[in-house]
Amino acid sequence: MFFKKYIILSIILIFFFVNCSYSGFLNSGSMRIAIKKESVKSTYLLGYIENRDNHFDPYNTKNLSNMLKFELLNAGYGILVLDDYIKVSEDSASKELASKKEPKDILAQLAENAKMSGAGASPGGQEPGFLSPDFSSKLLRESEIKTVQAVTRFDFFIQGALAMNDNRKILDKIENGILFLEIFDKNGKFVSGINYTVEGRTLTEAELLKSICSRVIDKLEKREEPKPWWKF
């Protein structure tokens, strides 16, 4: 009797550990590393991705931008980010600084700013190497892209929009998503567009987002491939 109980208990324990190991295997996730190549194919500047989510999750477009940046880097392209060249407005910087300083420190800083006013600024109040805050958080026009090119050197500029909606039904609700990407050359000329649509899934899913960005890179790769003269 004792031997039978021992066998049954052993089987239960083995089943338990195997099940836990299997579950752990399924949920282990995946890890990838993208390393910048010494020689890049071309350089992309990542611009603004407009959020058209009807629930307005502020992280949707940020996740998309980060994943797109990773996939471009992994494919051997150079990456620049428009926000890195946007000068923070003095009002925003002053408010952030004031929240961290004592009143006496604020007065001392204001006095120092008064002494240095006008020094080191470029025409129009824009510092060399930086863009005005007017270029932030919006889709740029051709003339604006030309201005950006004068500050940071790139081969192609990407901007677009991410839209997520549903069929507006309480029962049998179906989610759908649309991704628009526009590619411009360094002169601000529109050269190509990429559109991705999906129904029954949301663009916030990690694996789907990874798949989308990988496919975007595939499209860019094909667009940049030199074609033989006999192919049109």
UniProtKB/TrEMBL annotation:
<protein>
    <recommendedName>
        <fullName>Lipoprotein</fullName>
    </recommendedName>
</protein>
